[in-house]
Amino acid sequence: MPLLSIKDLHEAAVRIAPFARQTPVMTSRRIDEWLGCEAFFKCENLQRTGAFKFRGACNAVFSLEDEEAARGVVTHSSGNHGAALAEAARLRGIAAYVVMPANAPPVKRAAVLEYGGIVTECLPTLQAREEAAARIIAETGATLIHPYNDWRIIAGQATAAAELHAEIPDLDVVICPVGGGGLAAGTALATHFLAPACRVVLGEPQAVNDAWQSLQQGRIVPVQAGTTIADGLRTSLGELTFPVLRDHVEQIVTVSEAEIVTALRMLWTRMKLLVEPSSAVAAAAASRARSRLEARRVGIIVSGGNVDLDHLPWTPSSARTGP
User: Fold this and answer.
1) Closest CA to 136 of 59, 79, 93, 76
2) Which of 41, 125, 180, 187 is the Cys-Cys partner for 161 at CB 3.0 to 4.6 Å?
3) How confident is the model at residue 107 (pLDDT cuts 50, 70, 90)?
4) Where would I find the beta strands (DSSP E) of the chain?
5) Looking at domain 53-144, which CATH architecture does it have?
6) 3-class DSSP state for residue 2?
7) Which among 50, 53, 55 has a CA at the least distance from the CA of 17?
8) How many CB atoms lie within 10 A of CB 110?
9) Are the CB atoms for 305 and 49 separated by under 8 Å?
10) Same-fold call for 6-51+150-318 versus 53-144
């Protein structure tokens, strides 16, 4: 049984309501034709800090007791969670220490700094991230806010799917991308509580398909080195997120880099949605699963819009914009 209840989700929604945006749900006849279903896009690319991550970070930061909050918060993040935590901490008037790998996209590092985060650079390994965060905690007494393996984070992320179900009832399927599993677990739990007849499907790059392997093997399979333009999804599942996905997710659909680029171009050109590649993975998964989604009502959570405009994935081989 999940360690979160519907009460926890409601409390998270109330807690973040003064700060988080209720993002729009958008549709497109052309995209419906491409996917073969009736698609409803929950646009978290328009969320504060440009990603769903603000929901969880805001819930976690404003859940802290005053004495605990005064010592600040710390995390390790390649970008979106770090920016979200920095902004949530700024709103509460406390410090946010963000450990970032040296290979983090420059646009995401700049965003953390712009929101007031205190950045510590480290080697691009999980061990280096955790060691740097531990040193900061020892020096400052700051509270660790993990990017996804934290029930406060998961409850906050669940509010995106909760809003989607409230606005678009009777969805047959909800699709979102999966990396560490914070959004995926929150989506699965919100759907389990609010729309139990609705199925949850996740999208994941084939190049880093550790979540797919984890569900196949019934255990957490750590992510292996792989190259994908969906940089936000190069993360292993956590011990909190894995069992939620195991119990409440019907399927993980893996997609190629070419499929991600095609979906990205479709969202940019047909819906005018400035989204990052990690967001496009969910639409790419819907395209790959087209035969199973035929004529269904499908909610697709667009996870973020923090695009590195200096490194767009357009190549001659990806010039097609889809069927």
Assistant:
1) 76
2) 187
3) confident
4) 25-26, 38-43, 73-76, 96-101, 118-122, 143-144, 173-177, 199-205, 251-255, 297-302
5) 3-Layer(aba) Sandwich (3.40)
6) coil
7) 55
8) 13
9) no
10) yes
> Do 136 and 120 meet the contact criterion of CB atoms below 8 Å apart?
yes
* Cα 272 to Cα 266: distance, rounded to the nearest angstrom: 9
Where do the structural domains in the chain lie, given as residue ranges?
6-51+150-318, 53-144
Q: Quick one: CATH architecture of 6-51+150-318? A: 3-Layer(aba) Sandwich (3.40)
pLDDT, tens only, 268-312: 999 999 999 999 999 999 999 999 999 999 999 999 988 877 777
Number of H helices and number of E strands within the chain?
A: 14, 10
Per-residue b or e along 293-303, where b marks 16 or more CB atoms closer than 10 Å to that residue's CB: beebbbbbbbb
Q: What beta strand segments (E) does 148-206 contain?
A: 173-177, 199-205
Q: Which amino acid is at 310?
A: D
